[in-house]
Amino acid sequence: MKKVAIGPGYAKGVAELDAPPADNIRRLARAKGVPPSEITALVLVRPRHADIIATVRTTGAAVRLISDGDVTGVIHTADPENSGVDIYMSTGGAPEGVLAAAALRCIGGQMQCRLVLDTDEKRERAARMGGTDPQMIFSVEDMVRGDCLFAATGVTTGALVSGVKFRRHFIETETIVMRSVTGTIRIVRGAAPPA
Predict the structure, then answer these.
(1) CATH architecture designation of domain 2-146
(2) N or C: which end of the chain has fewer CB within 10 A?
(3) Per-residue pLDDT of the chain (195 residues; tens, 9 = 90+)
(4) In a 10 Å sphere around its CB, with 0-12 CB exposed, 13-18 middle and 19+ buried, how is residue 172 labelled?
(5) Which residues of the chain does CATH 3.40.190.90 include?
């Protein structure tokens, strides 16, 4: 799934999936009232993203590269003051796109996505699931309708939550829980004796 995401508070169309990355950077900078050099784009490190990275750099914007974790990457756009991430641009997993959309539904933000249907198997699978337009652009509202919850428990330590910790007499976990109805974000720490 090809994805572009920004945080809350912007007019629709500031970042568009089919716009060149440089245009998205310039439009976002204009919307924020800053020069492009004050924008940070988060991109998955993949050979397929070399053009995105190069194009973003021509605007003067910063590029932060991640090796994985595009759900977290999208979530970071909702809080640029703390995360340092203004926009997310990458192609990653479709299930991760839906998870990220659920998080944005809870905490605010915009995302546009399009399935990458580059094999017969993917096209057939999309058709079985009701996908009739291979060029359809999905928004957060298309992927997650109505009220929702988002929960993620760390297996390994990441930017959102700590990973599982094996203590002497118990196992400790950390989970982030977001709720669309209230916009609340909670961190839940749990402990249980080993099985």
Answers:
(1) 3-Layer(aba) Sandwich (3.40)
(2) C
(3) 999 999 999 999 999 999 999 999 999 999 999 999 999 999 999 999 999 999 999 999 999 999 988 899 999 999 999 999 999 999 999 999 999 999 999 999 999 999 999 899 988 988 898 877 889 999 999 999 999 999 999 999 988 999 999 999 999 999 999 999 999 999 999 999 987
(4) middle
(5) 2-146
